[in-house]
């Protein structure tokens, strides 16, 4: 990870090394924070943030779900995001928005803790590479939405993903896919999963514990452009084994084909995955006029 020069914190750009939080920040002890991962891509007109407003709107929803009072409007956060990207001079980068309970008092209630906000950006390539993702089914189950709000992109519940990811890496795989408490496929540790079978795309719904992904939505819209049908439905582990193609998608991962799951091999990337990956690259780099509205120029 390559450090940038500045991080936006509570309304001001501060030097990277000085962007610090107190050791008694509530979020550090109790996981009371939400975040977003967004990407800036190079286009012919200069760097642009992909689907920025959708990411910021999901950030607002996440705050509401876990009871955080967001002290900035979407418009203010949009301006701060562009300011941060421009200040760091990174033509292509990853952005991390974080809203968290800061230092005020200890204890679960956190009535006296302020809400702090930061935006950081750095150069970060696709997290799962391009040679094919080796998946394993984790022994850990995805968080139940009746226990924590899985629709919120909150930091506390991500311990579930950390445990599954470590289990996969320790076993020699690249990524884990988690099942929910009922045994249905949910998602990977930081990405949604799609299967392709007989030309139909299917991905688990949010009711399975999967985050409603913005890249997931992007894939569904690009599939429609290509005349492909995509559905959200409950999937069993065996459905993944019986698929013609598998791929994962997310802001960090982009669209990455799955080369194996639990030792079952796939040739790949398959034709549908390849078409979608090409369409995604065209959209994020501004080469598809139909989706130019998804891009917010950093110069704006």
TrEMBL record:
Pathway: Amino-acid biosynthesis; L-isoleucine biosynthesis; L-isoleucine from 2-oxobutanoate: step 4/4; Amino-acid biosynthesis; L-valine biosynthesis; L-valine from pyruvate: step 4/4; Amino-acid biosynthesis; L-leucine biosynthesis; L-leucine from 3-methyl-2-oxobutanoate: step 4/4. Coiled coil: none annotated. GO terms for molecular function: branched-chain-amino-acid transaminase activity. Its EC number is 2.6.1.42. Keywords: Amino-acid biosynthesis, Aminotransferase, Branched-chain amino acid biosynthesis, Pyridoxal phosphate, Transferase. The keyword Transferase applies. The keyword Amino-acid biosynthesis applies. It catalyses: L-valine + 2-oxoglutarate = 3-methyl-2-oxobutanoate + L-glutamate; L-isoleucine + 2-oxoglutarate = (S)-3-methyl-2-oxopentanoate + L-glutamate; L-leucine + 2-oxoglutarate = 4-methyl-2-oxopentanoate + L-glutamate. Its cofactor is pyridoxal 5'-phosphate. PANTHER family: AMINO-ACID AMINOTRANSFERASE, AMINODEOXYCHORISMATE LYASE. This is Branched-chain-amino-acid aminotransferase. It comes from Nonomuraea insulae. The gene is ilvE.
């Amino acid at each position: 990870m390559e450090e940038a020069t500045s991080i936006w914190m509570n309304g001001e750009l501060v030097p990277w090394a000085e962007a610090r939080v107190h050791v008694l920040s509530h979020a550090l002890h109790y996981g009371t924070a939400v975040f977003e991962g967004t990407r800036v891509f190079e286009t012919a007109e200069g760097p642009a943030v992909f689907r920025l407003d959708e990411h910021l709107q999901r950030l607002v929803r996440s705050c509401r779900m876990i009871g955080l009072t967001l002290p900035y409007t979407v418009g203010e956060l949009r301006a701060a995001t562009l300011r941060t990207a421009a200040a760091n001079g990174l033509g292509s980068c990853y952005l991390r928005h974080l809203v968290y309970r800061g230092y005020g008092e200890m204890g679960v209630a956190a009535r006296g803790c302020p809400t702090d906000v930061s935006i950081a950006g750095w150069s970060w390539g696709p997290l799962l590479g391009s040679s094919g993702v080796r998946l394993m089914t984790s022994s850990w189950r995805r968080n139940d939405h009746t226990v924590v709000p899985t629709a919120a992109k909150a930091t506390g519940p991500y311990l579930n993903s950390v445990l599954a990811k470590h289990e996969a890496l320790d076993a020699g795989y690249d990524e884990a896919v988690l099942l929910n408490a009922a045994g249905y496929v949910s998602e990977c540790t930081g990405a949604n999963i799609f299967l392709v079978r007989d030309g139909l795309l299917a991905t688990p719904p949010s009711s399975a514990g999967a985050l409603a992904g913005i890249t997931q939505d992007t894939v569904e819209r690009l599939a429609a452009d290509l005349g492909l049908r995509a559905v959200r439905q409950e999937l069993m582990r065996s459905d993944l084994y019986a698929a013609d193609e598998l791929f994962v998608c997310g802001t960090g991962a982009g669209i990455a084909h799955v080369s194996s799951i639990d030792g079952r091999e796939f040739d790949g990337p398959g034709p549908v995955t390849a078409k979608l990956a090409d369409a995604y690259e065209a959209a994020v780099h501004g080469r598809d006029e139909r989706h130019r509205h998804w891009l917010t120029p950093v110069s704006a």
